[in-house]
Amino acid sequence: MNHTDLVARARDWAAHDPDPRTRAELLALVALAETGDAAGDADDATSAIGGERSARDALAELASRFSGPLQFGTAGLRGAVAAGESRMNVAVVIRATAGLARYLLDTVGPGARVVIGCDARHGSSEFMDAAAEVLAASGAEVRTLPKRLPTPITAYAVRALDCDAGVMITASHNPPADNGYKVYLGGRLTDEDGRGVQIVPPADADIAARIAAAPPADEVPRSREGIVPTGDGVVRDYVARAGSLRGRGEDAAADSGDSGGSGGSGVRIVLTPMHGVGGETAERALHEAGFPDVHLVPKQADPDPNFPTVSFPNPEEPGAIDLSIELAEELDATVVVALDPDADRCSVAIPLRDGGWRQLTGDEIGAILGEQAAADPARSGGTLACSVVSSRLLGRIAAAHGLRSAATLTGFKWIARTPDIRFGYEEAIGYCTDPEAVHDKDGVTAAVRVATLADDLAAQDRTIEDLLDDLARRHGLYATAQLSFRVADVSLIADGMARLRANGIDSLAGSPVVETRDLAQGSADLPPTDGLMYVTAADDRVIARPSGTEPKLKCYLEVVLPVGDDGVIPRAAAAERLTRIKADMTAALGF
Prior knowledge:
- The chain is α/β, with parallel strands linked by helices.
- It is 37% helix and 19% strand.
- It has helices at 3-15, 20-35, 42-48, 55-65, 90-107, 124-137, 151-160, 203-212, 233-248, 279-288, 322-331, 362-374, 393-400, 412-415, 443-458, 464-475, 491-503, 571-589, and strands at 77-80, 113-118, 141-144, 165-169, 178-185, 197-198, 227-229, 269-272, 294-296, 335-339, 346-351, 357-359, 383-387, 404-408, 421-426, 430-432, 477-486, 507-508, 511-518, 532-536, 541-546, 552-561.
- The strands form four sheets. Strands 1, 2, 3, 4, 5, 6 and 7 form a seven-stranded mixed sheet that branches. Strands 17-22-21-20-19-18 form a six-stranded antiparallel sheet.
- Helix 1 (3-15) packs antiparallel against helix 2 and helix 5 (90-107) packs across helix 8 (203-212).
- The longest helix is centred in the last third of the chain and has 19 residues, at 571-589.
- It is globular and about 75 Å long.
- The two termini are 32 Å apart.
- The model is unreliable at 248-262 (pLDDT under 50).
């Protein structure tokens, strides 16, 4: 697009932008791009391009903001909050909601019931209001949750209120500059397995087509009539449900009938919501479950969209839970629970026998929660499910308890719709521990399950570390790790995958590859997806795939080592083997 066309496109977008703040921001950039003068809006233009104030920089920024509409897919919308068609802003949210409203009218007809929630990120409140007004004007019955709540409450509300759809304004654990727009379907738009689950094809493409056909944002009708706040009732019901899970899982995994019932507990929990919206809700749920000794990390307890104490607001990132572990050491805590900013993910750290602390991998948390679920006869559902890149240990656990297991495509939009699901997880610290109520990953209920497990084990003078060792002795040590390559040029990802497909891999860590599977070809149990799987004679497994949300090529590594008669868990040997496999995969990919 040449300079003249780009400026004209930006001016036209600004003319239809109903938000005066982003309209002024965009016009300041246009003025700077044309003349080198921000025309009185220097602050808007300067902040928009990171402090640079040349016409060339402004033009480059406009080119980025008009590189094409923000794409709507199975993750909904996600992008940086700023003016322009390629960013998250009120105008983009209005047009996206107009497309969703048209989809609901075409598939359900007038009167579709929709629930809307939001987190505390930049723009979340305004985006939620705009979405509610567009849906109300379309004739939908709109239910709005209180603002600044966890994503799992919206997922819960879709089922609890029998809604046809749900909208959650959140960017989960993305960087501070981002926000997003997530859609759930329910009610008359799906079957029971899909009720309250994030959208999958073809619904995403159907909605995207209607967004593309939507009029400019200022021409989309909006109304406050027909918007009904839910009040605190849905939140109270969700907290009560989450709190009740302790009683339903008393004997699971620990084989103990003495978990304290509905009374108090000696478990001391350090909890961080990572500057997100999960702190108050999770604390209430834990108290409801009978865990009064909960300590929030003070510097991370309150919602703050700037996430000042972490470089990246994801509990998996190095250093993200350092403050939590410091507090846990000070308080002699039983367990650390770390939620991501919208509280749909949950990480865990535990004290070790040697006096240190260790953050568990997502697969280790999946194993202990899977064992807890499998051992609990009160749980409904007969299937334990995980993504194909998660550990194979869950399948072994399911088989040992006479249950079925399923491996799905990555993402909870696939995991949570598994028929007859009892428990589901993905290695990226997402856990569905109460699928009857929440058909999505839920960090709050996962926190209650982890606290319950720690309490049950403590009744036997045992710990989560002991349970992990028991699982290794019973099934072998399944150790996992990730190898990621972040690229500036996304074409390098396709090049790397092409090299793997062309050249293959003969061995990993000295063991011959005995199975190569191109996941793009699909199978009877897994739809096609861009990925390659390698299994060695030693039962190592590697899956290489492009990330669905970041400019990364990811490799998911797993080794399986037996535990000898001496009962010693070969963790050091597994770590060394994973290191060797990382080196072999790096060489094979050519990065």
